[in-house]
Amino acid sequence: MAKSKYDEAQLHELLYQALETEAGGIEIYETAVSCAANSDLKEEWQGYLKETRGHHKTLLGVFEKLGLDPEAQTPGRKVVAHLGQSLVKAMQMARAEGDADAAQLVAGECVVLAETKDHLNWELIGHVAGNSTGETAQILKEAYEAVEQDEDHHLYHTTGWTRELWIGALGFPAVVPPPEEVKNVETAIGAARAEHARGEML
Question: Does the predicted TM-score (pTM) go above 0.85?
Answer without folding.
Answer: yes
